Amino acid sequence: MKGVDLQLYDGEVVAIVGPNGAGKTTLLRTISGLVTVHAGEIRFEGERITRTPAHRIARRGIGHCPEGRRIFQRLTVEENLVTGFIPRRGRSYADLRAQAFALFPILAERRASYASRLSGGQQQMLAVARSLMAEPRLLMLDEPSLGLAPLVVNQILEIVLKLAESGVSIMLVEQKVNFALEICDYAYVLENGYCTMAGPGAKLLADPLLREAYLPKV
Ligand SMILES: Nc1ncnc2c1ncn2[C@@H]1O[C@H](COP(=O)(O)OP(=O)(O)OP(=O)(O)O)[C@@H](O)[C@H]1O
Ligand SMILES: [Mg+2]
Fold first, then answer.
1. Which residue of 39, 56, 61, 172 is 20 to 30 Å from 48, comparing CA positions?
2. What is the span of the domain harbouring residue 156?
């Protein structure tokens, strides 16, 4: 990846869109400390995290909800939440779990079920809920809508927008370009590892070049 320069503010929703293989997942993995940075700099809340190890980046407050959900299929809902717990600001596990269950009541109902028994939508909810167990200040979501019915996607994104309202910054990688541009404050288009377009969501939605490349003709 080269020439990718992006920033985001508290409570802002930034969308990253672009074709398969553009480098969207690589970008998130780089911010998380899972991919080595060869040149350039990443700053979070004023501090350099360019070469900070992944576990410390998570502790600093960056949550990563990876592509393909990656929850533990053979653990229960509750056990999955335990795996995401990082006591960052003195909040207890019980407190954070209560918050997760309040956002996703269905997970409370199914707390003792194995993750493998959940529907796709419930698994995605669990993946988001697990990320929240570390109280992130920035939550990165990699294609949360993949394989889910529109109704469930809306349900999950409503909660994500609620989080943004509470001040959590959101970085959303989405293949549903239309949808991502509608809900974000600002968006970046990645192609072949380069950032080729950027701007407020509404502005990109109206851009003929972007429409031609990414939106279905009507
Ligand atoms: N660990 C790796 N080593 C070498 N190449 C990789 C590695 N991970 C990804 N790539 C390559 O880097 C490019 C970007 O991949 P990436 O997964 O970031 O794209 P993406 O935008 O997330 O795509 P998708 O929409 O399919 O999820 C691809 O060409 C991919 O094959
Ligand atoms: Mg990807």
1. 172
2. 13-72+137-214
Any idea what the CATH number is for the domain that residue 181 is in? 3.40.50.300
Q: What pLDDT is stored for residue 7 in this prediction?
A: 86
Alpha carbon dihedral 174, 178, 184, 188, in 10-degree steps, equals 60
Q: Are 16 and 173 in contact (CB under 8 A)?
A: yes
Ligand 1 centroid from CA 55, angstroms = 22
Q: Is residue 123 part of a domain?
A: no
Residue 125 belongs to a domain: no
Amino acid occupying residue 2: K
- To the question of pTM greater than 0.85 for the whole model, the response is yes
Query: Tokens standing for 72?
Result: 């533990």
Atom of ligand 1 at shortest range from CA of 67: 27
Q: What is the 52 CA–ligand 1 centroid distance (Å)? A: 22
Q: Which residue ranges have their beta carbon within 6 Å of ligand 1?
A: 18, 20-26, 67
**57-92: per-residue pLDDT in tens?**
999 999 999 998 999 999 999 999 999 999 888 889
pLDDT at 73: 96
Q: Which atom of ligand 1 is nearest to the CA of 26?
A: 18
Q: Ligand 1 centroid to 190 CA: how many Å?
A: 12
Counted domains in the chain:
1
**180: in domain:** yes
